[in-house]
Specification:
Rossmann fold, Zinc Finger, Delta Prime, domain 3, five-stranded parallel beta sheet
């Protein structure tokens, strides 16, 4: 993993590279960012940069022996710890699944990971035995690199067992680097938080998400725009959406909304029937898209045009529709979509639910038609 493989986040990358170039490398850091952000990918790229035999100011070389091994997650001085299932489980027992999972998607979340272990319904944890194993591994001399690395993903799962690591984190062996990769620092015990330097990793911009989708050949053009908008800065979400059967939601949502406005019952029913055939995940995504589009309409209505993310046909529609509705109507419509997305996720009859939304929208828009 090289820094250039991660879209955007230039300020965060620059800070990490500056640390390396200056020689002021904190021995314990916490990369903190929301689900689907670049925190785990950055930790991986950072370890490769520090170990690279021919790095430059911008990135690791990507071709030396160290880069090759770290990119394949087989470097003997690169260690990972992550949530597992089982009272005596160790991360080392699951490396045959961790490597392909991380290579495939360095933006994965805990649910994705536990699902790969066929244990998505069980509580993940990082055991006290794992903590002792970390101490054992880091007590050894480095094999090849100048540094030894431990990337501890999701320290929220440590609990009180994390106290076992306090002395190692505070006074690690020479040239040992701890990188905690976290999403919620409030879930991490304070004794650990106080011993690490914080690196905040922001969400990806829509532009960065689109760049990633197009560079990975997951989506192109308008489809990539829609997915980036829907994913709200989470590349994990963007990857999931790119695998959906249909992400061209704008045309469908606009035609349905207009049918509700003009009380075209036959078209409302036809839309409900056709949308019900898309599959539950696509139905949910369509309603989530509608929520986001209506929020953009709110911004347009209130003059916050600098915050509006959509463009092209979507923006034209938002500007026109904003003239037909008021904030109260938009609030009711958004709440309705959110409520029925919840019902559909929990296996409500999609055709009935979608037609019910249509009727509710028709009633909400009644005062606008009367003007």
């Amino acid at each position: 993993m090289q820094f250039r493989d991660i879209p955007g986040l230039e300020e965060t990358k620059a800070r990490l590279k500056q640390n390396a170039q200056s020689g002021r490398i904190p021995h314990a850091q916490m990369f903190l960012g929301p689900e689907g952000s670049g925190k785990l990918a950055l930790a991986w790229a950072y370890a490769q940069y520090l170990s690279c035999e021919n790095r430059n100011d911008e990135d690791s070389c990507g071709i030396c022996g160290s880069c090759h091994k770290i990119s394949k997650l087989i470097h003997p001085d690169l260690h990972f710890t992550f949530p597992t299932v089982g009272a005596k489980a160790l991360s080392s027992m699951f490396m045959d699944k961790w490597r392909p999972a991380l290579e495939s998607n360095p933006y994965l979340n805990v649910f994705d990971w536990l699902k790969l272990l066929d244990n998505e319904n069980k509580q993940g944890n990082i055991t006290v035995d794992e903590c002792r194993d970390i101490i054992k591994r880091l007590s050894l001399k480095s094999f090849e690199s100048e540094y030894k690395f431990i990337i501890l993903w999701m320290p929220e799962f440590l609990g009180k067992e994390g106290n076992t690591l306090l002395k190692m984190i505070e006074e690690p062996p020479e040239k040992t680097i701890f990188i905690l990769v976290a999403e919620d620092q409030d879930e991490i015990i304070g004794t650990i938080r106080s011993r690490v330097q914080l690196v905040k990793v922001p969400r990806f911009s829509d532009e960065a998400s689109k760049l990633y989708l197009e560079s990975q050949h997951l989506a192109q053009g308008e489809q990539a725009d829609v997915i980036a908008f829907l994913s709200e800065g989470s590349l994990n979400r963007a990857i999931e959406l790119s695998a959906a059967e249909d992400t061209s939601f704008f045309t469908s949502f606009r035609s349905w909304l207009l049918a509700c406005y003009y009380v075209k019952i036959a078209e409302m029913l036809k839309w409900s029937e056709s949308t019900a055939q898309l599959g539950r995940e696509n139905q949910k995504q369509l309603l989530e898209y509608g929520i986001k589009l209506l929020r953009e309409v709110v911004l347009v209505r209130n003059g916050a045009t600098e915050l509006v993310k959509i463009r092209g046909a979507e923006r034209d529609f938002a500007e026109k529709f904003s003239q037909l509705v008021d904030d109260s109507m938009l609030e009711k419509m958004t709440a309705t979509l959110s409520e029925y997305a919840y019902y559909i996720e929990r296996n409500a009859n999609a055709k009935i639910a979608l037609f019910q939304i249509s009727l509710l929208f028709k009633n909400i828009l009644a005062s606008s038609r009367a003007k």
